[in-house]
Structures are given as structure tokens and as C-alpha cells.
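hey so i finally got around to running the thing on that chain from the lab meeting. sorry it took forever, my laptop kept dying and i had to restart like 3 times. anyway pasting the input first so we r on the same page abt which one it is
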Amino acid sequence: MVPVDAEQITMLREVLSTTGWLERTAELGRALRVTSRTPGGLLLVGTPGGDPWHLAAHLDDESRLGDAPGLAPTLVRWTPPADAPAHLRIGLERLEAARRGETLFVVAEEDAPVPLLERVDDARRTGATVLALEGGDRELRSLAHEALTVPPDEALMSFDGAQHLVSAAAGREPARSPRGLRHRLARLLDAVSGPVVD
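ok and heres what got predicted. didnt touch it at all, straight out
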């Protein structure tokens, strides 16, 4: 995968500004940020043909830079080498231990194999939130709470480009409107001192 810098992301955003892709990737990014609050609880898994290394690195950066420890992913691998460092030796058995409060993010450009679908279904049943970035896999999409499909014949958005936009969106703190902040402060003041009576 070719590295993408900030300038390329800006150009990509400009090209996609009227296509709906920015909104769709931002929606999945927000879901990722909202559900991934527990350090170590974001389980990132791909297919046997590819571990999502690049996305893992981007999410790790977004976690560090955005002070969002829940976004630092646990990369789950199909066949981790026994001599790999501990954080790169996490195998599919970790999915069997997924629980409520954790997020399973499946990144699958090709169809997910049956063993992965079974583990995703089990994780969902035990209360984990399932998110998916997929290339047209209906079965995976049906198991996910939130999913984004990037069809292989999509001319404007590549699967790699979608990963970059989703990770960047996950790293952004949601904007708070000044009116909303004022309203919350007014409610707090009312609670502390009582409402003003004319």
C-alpha cells in the first residue's frame, strides 16, 4: 500500500466533495470513535489474504494524536508467527473472547470466509459492536451494526482511500455547537443555583 500524506487526503476530499463518499466514510469513522472507548478493546481483523496493517498504523496515530486511547487497535491476525512481538502475535482466538464494550472492526475487500463470519456472529452475540468496511460482502454486512461498502468497480473511491478517510474521521473530535454548550451551562447553573425568577 502506498503511503498517503495530508496533501493527498485534502485533494481526495476535494474530488469527493459532491459524491456522498465523505459523508459515508465520516459516518463509519464516527461510529468507530464512539464505540471504541476501551483501551485494547478495538479489535481490527482482515481476511486470510490481508491483515489491515496500514489501517492499524493510521488508527494508532489517530489515537495518539487525538488523545483517544480506545482508537489504538488490537491487530488480530490469521497466522501470527510465534516469534513476533507480543502485540503482533494476537490470533483469531482473541475474537472468541470479545465482549460487551469492545468493538470488532472487520476490514475485508474480498468476501469474508466462513470461519471469520462465525466468529463475528459469536462476538456480536456476546455484546461486541461490529463494524465493517467491505467490498460487497452481504453476509458480513448483515452481521455488522454499521458497515460501509466500497464496490470493486467504484471509480471514485478505492478501498485504500476509504480506509484513510474512515481513520481520519475517527480521529476527529465531534464538533460541539456553541448554542449546545451554552444550553448545558445554563442547565448546570439552574441545577446549582435554581432558575432565575423575575
